[in-house]
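Annotated sample (chain length 337).
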Amino acid sequence: MLAQLDDACGADPEWICRLAYEQTDSALAAQLASAAVWILVIVVGAWLLTRLVHRQLPAATESWIERRQAADKEADRDDLTREQRVERDLRLERNRQRSNTLSVVMGSVLRGLIWLIALFLILDRLGLNLAPLLAGAGVVGIAVGFGAQQMVRDFLAGMFIVFEDQFGVGDVIDLGEAVGTVEQVNLRVTRLRDVDGVVWYVPNGEIKRVANMSKLWSRAVLDVQVSYDADVDEAARLLKQIADELWREEHNEFTIIDEPEYWGIENFGADGVTLRLVLRTEPTEQWSTARELRRRIKIGFDAAGIEIPYPQRTVHMKTSEQQTGSQQATTSPDEDT
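Output written by the structure step:
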């Protein structure tokens, strides 16, 4: 009996294998029961580890961000201007976005690593020799690497995007054909949604250049045309006054973080003179701020009697009487003779 148990479960039998052999008196059943229990333990342990990573990694990231913010507030100086405080808050928010992106990417990598280790442990429990398996996997990996160069390039580009903080979730970016708000960033693909609601999936290896329109701060540029007959100085003064009023009101949806600047005459066009006004806003708020400013500028210019030019065309029309008179005045060569 002892020799049969040693043949089924080894010289140092585990209690699971021993119990299964005593109940079934079968070496195969004892080995299968032992392997099944250990596989279940490995799977449950890997699942618990992945859940722990999923819960604790974002919490650790959030705790680190809060400590950074608390340290910045303690070191805060009373002589900071309003613009400097807003810029500091924007930088902290940018660090938060970057930390959250890194947390998501690191969580994906750690979960993949945990399940890979669990797979190796399961194969080891099944009695497979991992040494030749790993060597064969290395050869297959090299072959797959040559055949999947695009995927490898995507992963490498994704790593640089994340660690260099080129863009993050919530940024408005221009990738060429795709322009929109970033919804997800991982090591292989970037997902963004454009203004029409279309979702774009862009492989990171295909991204040749990125225009980030919302990193730390944005700028609204308004080119306003006035007619050549208008008083340019009065129009410029009114533009600056309207922009300053919006800046001092401190609306949440039109957050201007610095004093508006009037840059002067930008162009002499066919219909009028173009004046340029610029404002520095919080990220992604340049468009709503520009729309509100255009509304106020239209109201202000109408009240001040400043004309905003528009293309005009003069059309000359001939009446039927004029056409008849011109036909009678025309004579042929035969009538002249």
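Annotation: The chain has ten helices and eight strands.
Annotation: The two ends are 144 Å apart (CA to CA).
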